[in-house]
Predict the 3D structure of the following.
Amino acid sequence: MINNPKNTDSFKKVNRDAFTHKHLIGIETLSPEEINIIIDLADYYAERLDDRAFKPNILKDQIVLTLFFEDSTRTRTSFEMAAKRLGADVVNIDLRTSSLSKGESLTDTIQTLHSMLRPDAIVVRHSEYGAPTFISQIVDCPVINAGDSWHEHPTQAILDALTIRRHFGEIKGKKIAICGDIAHSRVAASNMILLTKLEAQVHVVAPPALMPQKFPAGSNSAFIQTYENLIEGITDCDVVMMLRNQKERMQAGLIESEDAFFEEYGLTSEKLAYAKKDAVVMHPGPMNRGVEIADEVADHPTQSLILEQVRNGVPTRMAVMDILMKENR
Ligand code: NCD
């Protein structure tokens, strides 16, 4: 049992000072080395996650404010759990029903909360592209993007990478298919950027209506191939990552029907058989069973890493807060 992580080699070895950003807005601005710094530390925390006595307390007396302007279950909860496991105090504010609905501007809401709570970090999810960047310009603490519109969801991509690395031992050279509603998905965008920076081979699989016009800024197109056919796209892949259709950001009529979508793009065990024999299935959640994924695949005892992803959300967010909040301790 390690109660004081500061004494352990792997904890000390992580070179937090080589991570130079104040905020985590996206994967776009991170170097491969910086991505690996977060994954290494997340891996350290993942190893100790089941040890309830492991209470590093490195964020003692610090306040983490979570601002969710959009629905969330796993992301908000895992940020809260991560902050608490590091000893921070957490204030969660659900802004779906807030003063904003009374006409208050985003700037006024943020300035009010900032001056009331004096947070040491702010975690924000917002339906508008660029909202976390905007907030980072009007507060004096680190801002962590927990998903903005279809732009980026950096901690999801990092926890996905941690999950892949813990399963296969490496990311470079792995063939990873990302399938479904690529055009409206911030998870797909952050993953395409991260995985190509770490030199994985990314297969992007989507019907033409859900294929993005261009690849996200920061991704390396030399590592990306696009496919309209699911079976062709997942053939020989190590990882098949399925995505939810982002109906909240999708124009009506882009998909004929959910049944027709499942027929062509839903992952079943029959289709998964075209991937490598030891391939694994991932999904950021929430899943729409019977639309993009069949029960037998989602619940597969060895091939599905979906619950492992959820679990890895906590150590990943611990690593991100540890690194970004290093100034105050
Ligand atoms: C994703 C999101 O909110 O972007 N969920 C998550 O954070 N695990 C994906 C989604 O909503 O489909």
Remarks:
- Residues 74-75, 147, 153, 156, 186-187, 244, 284-285 surround N-carbamoyl-L-aspartate (CB under 6 Å).
- The longest strand covers residues 63-68.
- The radius of gyration is 20 Å.
- The chain has a mean pLDDT of 94.
